[in-house]
Design a protein that fits this description.
heterodimer, A: 314 residues, alpha/beta, Rossmann fold, six-stranded mixed sheet, 10 helices, 49% helix, B: 313 residues, mainly alpha, 79% helix
């Protein structure tokens, strides 16, 4: 019991030390920001470990730089909404002029957004929509329509059989829309589709694909809702020697995936325009801060990359 | 006294084995597709990465320690290896350096714990975050894929990865049963003070166990990266908990001083069979996690229940 208490106290101290450091940092930032009239915006992307988000964040920073806006990047290393919420709570206390949020989970921010509203800080959501009055605008790939493109590509190119959909986390808005986009096209064409949530985890995507191919030998097409997932699907299908039989389509158009399209291992990729998404979200937030009217939704269209046009994007 | 505890240990191992057989029989009866040979080779090959991770964890747990950082070490080695292959470093060097950096990571975690005296849980929790951060620094936003065949062969199919893993299990088995250093792991895990008084240099040995844990996390990373043919800094997130779960399900005690790699092998196969079998029954991933969670509770409950009973007897 004594040693348990000691562990508990150590954990509490550790927590205090970490949060203390964060607040200390926040304090000095606000001093910098308060000194002049320069607009300061905070950007909280979903994760530092995905190429998609890194490009989006970099382009947002570039656009902020061009507009003469101070840009604070508080993207947490891993895909955890709770870390994002903490970052958001901190910048609200710190008093920035606006926040861009690429939510890891759209349901985690209600309380923080209430605080943002009380503090009068406008929020723009990018990639994943959040239902809250303080979220003034959403810049998003039209996931349903773009996944519909994937579904159509699959239905047009697959042999008779089933579609396997390798998904993100259960209930995630972006993941759901991509799943539904493919599902709807599959249904309309009378093709059966199996959905498996893999938590955006590439290892799980590999194992699930192997297991499902074993359990359903009639799978002839696989759609992965995110790109590292599609790479795992490719590896699993290749491992089973089924690359010629199974049509694989991924979503994002990361460099590694495009190389696999070029090599003929992945058939097609839906590319999101993350460059435009990053730039647009900054522009809109700055417009809101300057009191200009903005739309509630800026859909950004995805497009299909396959063997016929992959060279343009490599 | 010794014979009683040995019998108790053998019984726990046997129970885990019976559990593995029952689980497989149930799936074989209920799911026609589970019966194919290809399914069992898939289970074996999917079990290799978790097997290597759990192998390292077994050594650390027997010695009374705990390493939460190995999942992050897996991610770190994945991007280290990916970067080196991108720079066209020969595969042999890449593998050796990958294993070396893994051992180095274990050396760092182990040294921090013995030097500061902080609980292993906290020390390795800190290193879990630190190693993940390093993995991101080395790996984020870089395309590391389409590796040479000499490398991907280490992870594809089932023959090579299963052979590598089997060899590792044999080596660690010999290490634990035939070497002074291995035997000391049981002594230290059983009672550190007694081990120290009988002349074992406890701290030095503990660091070696953490190094071995890191080394096998590196091996797991190499197999995984070769298999998926791309590197990613987020790889291995949460895997440290799966490794610990496999060790516990096999029947190695979290209290240290007891256990063995045979049981860990059974624990790993139980987890791999469960996730494959439930897929073959058309059960989604949420239910897979629920069932593995209850298997862990059942395993630990069996352990404590029987320990109490054998203490009374």
């Amino acid at each position: 019991m004594k040693s348990f208490n000691r562990v508990l106290i150590s954990v509490l101290l550790l927590t205090l030390a970490v949060s203390g450091a964060v607040f200390a940092n926040g304090g000095s930032e606000s001093k910098d920001a308060g000194g002049d009239d320069q607009i300061t915006i905070a950007y909280i992307g979903a994760t530092k470990s995905m190429a998609f988000w890194n490009t989006l964040g970099k382009e947002a920073a570039n656009r902020a730089d061009e507009l003469g806006v101070k840009f604070i990047d508080l993207t947490p290393p891993e895909l955890t909404a709770s870390e994002q919420k903490k970052a958001m709570d901190n910048v609200i206390l710190q008093g920035v002029d606006g926040i861009i949020i690429g939510a890891a989970d759209n349901r985690a921010f209600g309380e923080s957004l209430d605080k943002a509203k009380a503090a009068g800080i406008p929020v723009v959501a990018v990639d994943t929509g959040i239902e809250h009055e303080q979220v003034k605008s959403l810049v998003q790939t039209d996931n349903l329509a773009s996944a519909g493109l994937a579904g159509q590509y699959i239905v047009d190119n697959m042999d008779p059989g089933k579609i396997l959909i390798i998904g993100g986390t259960v209930g995630h808005q972006t993941g759901n829309a991509r799943r539904d986009g493919v599902m709807q096209v599959a249904e309309a064409n009378g093709v059966e589709a199996i959905f498996r949530a893999c938590d955006w985890d590439d290892t799980k995507a590999f194992e699930t694909t192997q297991n499902e191919l074993g359990a359903n030998p009639d799978i002839t097409a696989i759609f992965a809702c995110w790109d590292p997932g599609a790479m795992s699907v490719k590896a699993a299908v290749k491992d089973k020697g089924l690359l010629d039989k199974v049509v694989i389509v991924g979503f994002d158009g990361n460099p590694a995936n495009l190389k696999a399209v070029k090599a003929g291992e992945i058939e097609a990729e839906i590319k999101q325009d993350n460059v435009l998404m990053g730039r647009k979200s900054v522009e809109i937030l700055v417009d809101i801060i300057n009191g200009k009217p903005v739309e509630e939704f800026y859909p950004i269209n995805g497009f299909v990359i396959d063997a016929s046009n992959v060279d343009e994007y490599l | 006294m010794l014979s009683k505890s040995m019998m108790f240990q053998m019984r726990r191992g046997l129970q885990a084995l019976v559990g593995l057989i029952i689980i497989n029989l149930v799936f074989i009866i209920l799911a026609p597709t589970y019966r194919q040979i290809g399914n069992f080779t898939t289970i074996l090959s999917n079990a290799t990465v978790l097997g290597c991770l759990a192998l390292g964890s077994t050594i650390v747990i027997i010695s009374g320690g705990l390493d939460l950082s190995i999942g992050s070490v897996l991610g770190l080695i994945s991007v280290v290896v990916g970067n080196m292959l991108n720079l066209n470093v020969p595969v042999v060097f890449t593998v050796l350096i990958g294993l070396g950096v893994g051992a180095l990571a274990g050396l760092i975690s182990g040294s921090i714990i013995v030097a500061t005296g902080i609980p292993a849980f906290i020390g390795t929790l800190g290193m879990m975050m630190a190693f993940r951060g390093m993995a991101e620094l080395f790996g984020s936003g870089r395309d590391m894929s389409a590796f040479p065949e000499a490398f991907t062969n280490l992870g594809t199919g089932y023959v090579v990865p299963v052979l590598i893993t089997a060899l590792s299990f044999i080596l660690v088995g010999l290490f634990l049963s035939k070497t002074r250093l291995g035997f000391n792991a049981y002594a230290i895990g059983g009672n550190q003070e007694v081990a120290r008084l009988s002349g074992v240099s406890v701290k030095k040995n503990q660091v070696v166990y953490y190094m071995l844990g890191g080394l096998f996390a590196g091996l797991a990373a190499i197999i995984e990266t070769a298999r998926l043919d791309f590197a990613q800094s987020s790889r291995g997130t949460g895997q440290e908990l799966n490794a610990i779960a496999a060790v516990i399900i096999g029947g190695t005690s979290m209290a240290g001083g007891m256990g063995g790699i045979g049981r860990t092998l059974i624990g790993v196969l139980i987890m791999a069979s469960l996730s494959a079998g439930l897929s073959h029954l058309g059960v989604g991933s949420s239910w897979q996690r629920i069932s593995i969670g209850f298997v862990i509770i059942l395993a630990v409950w069996l352990d404590t229940f029987q320990r109490k009973r054998s203490a009374k007897a």
